[in-house]
């Protein structure tokens, strides 16, 4: 079993190139099968979730041509199946985008129910509400989402909760429907906008993405395009907090600073300096960090996917901070591990009350999910001594070359597979 061995205490310093956004790439890959023409996608992150989805596309007959590590051409003209079911696809959340895409294009889909990180109940009632409103029947049977439509007709759909997944799935089902679909109370995340831009490049007619009302006029056909995925806001934010918590100086490059505003604002509040340019943000943590309060909210609010990284940082910031998680009900599972590293945090319901301590100490810890895993890595980088992290496969779902990028900033982190490799690591770092 692979683990990370980490020796903390080094400030992270330097520049790091941010990859394409996982949560934009996933719906874009699904949408790419909605035309019979070839589609070229650039800036694709090479992470486990996108690779699983690409395999799923191949399993139903799409031709996936990897031009290079970050560029893929997809030709879906030979798709012969509308059933997607394998052990891998069950583990990722984005499998359900294939429901929207296959239903939209072929009017039927059978896809294994989605997995993903265990951060809450994660119902899909709003997705189903949307598909049914457009005219599909939807049944959950034998672990599959089974859906079919004689015809899909545009409708006005109000989302009862702001949901990224439901907004995207309704867009996918509506782009080739008859007439106009209006999604009210839509999610405004950058990846929703990126998907809409991609579909518009393929000939769709989507207006209002990035606001809470999205209007989709159905078209009869989509066509070939070439498209580059936006940079990953959460990967960038993770490195920004890594700079803060290790008292470092890191520039994240190839980013859209506007997408990072809520993150930059919170870092400024706790005492970091932020410098923005057109496509880079520099975070300098020269002064002692101080407390603040944060509540996670849909975009443009503070992202739930940055909540663990924020909590780890506040754990070493002077004073009492309060972090409220308002999106997922089970997203503080990592706090127990952080407490074992010396943090003073009490979780009550969806709130964490954090009393800043002056140091963390290295420990053997287990990663509970993707973002919490990244957050525990940065905690270990800030800690005194050595930490060993288990279950790092969660981190590989969404971070490309995580340890290599951290090493390039001066982090002492290595992937190990045995006690012997751990001893070697300890000898090497002295
Ligand atoms: C997406 O999940 C992301 N995943 C998550 O990132 C991210 O945390 C989340 O959006 C919020 O930004 C992907 O893009 C693959 P939601 P999603 O539907 O779409 C409730 C990561 O680490 N809800 O916006 O599943 C839901 O329970 C992952 O990269 C319903 O009640 O999130 C939650 O409380 C983790 N009914 C809230 O809405 C529904 O039908 C927001 O969920 C759908 C959602």
In short:
The protein is of the alpha/beta class and 430 residues long. It contains 14 helices and 24 strands. The strands form 6 sheets. A 4-stranded mixed sheet has the order 22-23-1-24, sandwiched between helices. A 4-stranded mixed sheet has the order 2-15-17-16.
Low-confidence stretches: none
- Proportion in helices: 25-40%
Largest sheet, strands/sense/barrel:
4 strands, mixed
Rg, rounded, reads 22 Å
Mean residue pLDDT: 96
Query: Which quaternary structure do these chains form?
Result: single chain
- The fraction of residues in strands falls at 15-25%
Small-molecule components bound: ligand EPZ
Could you give the order of strands across the largest sheet? 22-23-1-24
Shape: globular
The overall strand count is 24
Report on this structure.
By secondary structure, the protein is of the alpha/beta class. The protein contains 14 helices and 24 strands. Helix 9 (307-314) runs parallel beside helix 11 (370-382). The structure holds ligand EPZ. Ligand EPZ binds at residues 23, 26, 93-94, 117, 120, 122-127, 161, 163-166, 187, 304-305, 327-328, 370-371, 398.
List keywords for this structure.
430 residues, alpha/beta, four-stranded mixed beta sheet, 14 helices, 24 strands, 31% helix, 25% strand, binds ligand EPZ
